[in-house]
């Protein structure tokens, strides 16, 4: 009976490829996978591309793991140069979407991109995958408009986060399930509006009580001390996660950099669902190139905080996990 999940995959892939990505006859669709990708998802996307009259290629890359999650094989980078639509579907890491060359091609408006990395078939077919993405995107556009031009962010949470940062004066990035034009990017199944802080501007205390990419949900919230945009101390919390973060900072260049802020679907302990839940916030460490920074670490790790209060330039954006600037109470 489990193999019947292919039916759900086909339905969601058709929605993703034909509706959300708007794939057209004659376009080239490149699907990047790794050995852990659920092939029901990848094959369903390939078949959906064919039904749109497009060409497709599926490129399997090695498992990179969290320490080299931004490194593509050269053949895959060359393939990106020729495609119109790029679907990142690596399951072992986010390698398929945080590659620096991919971001350059998006900026140059040479392709559009869908992030389906680190997803299981449940993420692809259930929960957030069943959202009304026209509405999700509409909310994303509203958030982008509210964020645009804001300079200072202050984030607090009941768990103890008290963080300040200056924000890059770039267009806030919408990844809310629709990418129909060259230069667009989206994520499925979820949505976010995000931006990067100015290098060296973030300071304060970050307490992570939600899931951490690759590490899972900490048994005890993890506390980090931030100075001049860098993690300068892993104060305490879940012992295994603290040990791994300390190792990563010691061994991987620029992995201590604060790279991204993204206040966004289900609260189920799953990282890719929860980091995009409405009213949560995620802060990333590592590579910030996607978010207007020069830092080019080989890692990008998102960390979720629950029930945040977020203020931009004195304007209340989120209050105790409710996106009040959009009228949610």
Give a quick precis of the structure:
The chain has 329 residues and is an alpha+beta fold.
Can you walk through the features of this model?
The structure is a single chain. With 329 residues, the protein is α+β, with helices and mostly antiparallel strands. The chain folds into two domains: 2-125, 3-Layer(aba) Sandwich (Thermophilic metalloprotease-like), CATH 3.40.1830; 133-171 and 194-326, no CATH class. 25% of the residues lie in helices and 26% in strands. It has eight helices and 17 strands. It has helices at residues 5-20, 39-51, 74-80, 100-107, 121-125, 133-147, 239-251, 271-274; strands at residues 28-33, 55-60, 85-88, 112-115, 152-156, 162-166, 173-175, 185-187, 192-194, 203-208, 222-227, 230-236, 258-263, 281-286, 300-305, 309-312, 315-318. A seven-stranded antiparallel β-sheet has the order 12-11-10-6-5-16-17, with helices on one face. A five-stranded parallel β-sheet has the order 2-1-3-4-8, with helices on both faces. α1 (5-20) packs across α2 (39-51). The longest helix is centred in the N-terminal third of the chain and has 16 residues, at 5-20.
Total helical elements: 8
* Helix-residue proportion: 10-25%
Mean pLDDT, as a whole number?
90
Strand order of the largest sheet: 12-11-10-6-5-16-17
Largest sheet: 7 strands, antiparallel
What's the SSE blueprint?
Blueprint: H1 5-20, E1 28-33, H2 39-51, E2 55-60, H3 74-80, E3 85-88, H4 100-107, E4 112-115, H5 121-125, H6 133-147, E5 152-156, E6 162-166, E7 173-175, E8 185-187, E9 192-194, E10 203-208, E11 222-227, E12 230-236, H7 239-251, E13 258-263, H8 271-274, E14 281-286, E15 300-305, E16 309-312, E17 315-318
Parallel strand pairs: 1-2, 1-3, 3-4, 4-8
Antiparallel strand pairs: 5-6, 5-16, 6-10, 7-9, 10-11, 11-12, 13-14, 14-15, 16-17
């Amino acid at each position: 009976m489990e193999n019947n999940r292919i039916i759900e995959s086909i339905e969601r892939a058709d929605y993703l490829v034909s509706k959300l990505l708007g794939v057209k006859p004659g376009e080239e669709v490149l699907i990047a996978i790794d050995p852990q990708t659920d092939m029901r998802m990848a094959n369903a996307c390939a078949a959906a591309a064919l039904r749109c009259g497009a060409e497709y290629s599926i490129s399997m890359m090695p498992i990179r793991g969290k320490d080299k999650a931004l490194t593509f094989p050269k053949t895959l980078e060359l393939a990106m140069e020729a495609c119109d639509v790029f679907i990142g579907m690596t399951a072992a890491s986010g390698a398929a979407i945080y590659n620096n060359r991919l971001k350059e091609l998006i900026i140059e408006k040479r392709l559009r991109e869908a992030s389906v990395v680190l997803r299981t078939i449940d993420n692809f077919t259930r929960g957030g995958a069943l959202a009304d993405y026209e509405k999700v995107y509409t909310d994303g556009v509203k958030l982008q408009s509210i964020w645009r031009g804001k300079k200072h962010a202050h984030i607090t949470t009941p768990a103890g986060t008290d963080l300040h940062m200056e924000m890059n004066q770039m267009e806030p990035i919408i990844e809310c399930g629709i990418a129909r034009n060259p230069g667009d990017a989206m994520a499925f199944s979820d949505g976010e509006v995000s931006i990067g802080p100015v290098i060296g501007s973030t300071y304060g205390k970050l307490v992570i009580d939600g899931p951490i990419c690759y590490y899972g949900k900490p048994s005890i919230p993890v506390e980090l001390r931030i100075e001049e945009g860098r993690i300068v101390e892993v104060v305490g919390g879940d012992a295994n996660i603290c040990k791994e973060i300390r190792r990563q900072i010691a061994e991987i260049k620029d992995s201590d950099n604060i790279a991204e802020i993204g206040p966004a679907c289900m609260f189920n302990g799953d990282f890719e669902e929860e980091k995009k839940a409405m009213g949560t916030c995620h802060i990333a460490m590592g590579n910030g190139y996607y978010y207007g920074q020069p830092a080019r670490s080989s890692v990008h790790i998102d960390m979720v905080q629950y029930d945040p209060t977020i203020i931009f330039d004195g304007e209340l954006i989120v209050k105790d996990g409710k996106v009040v600037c959009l009228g949610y109470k």
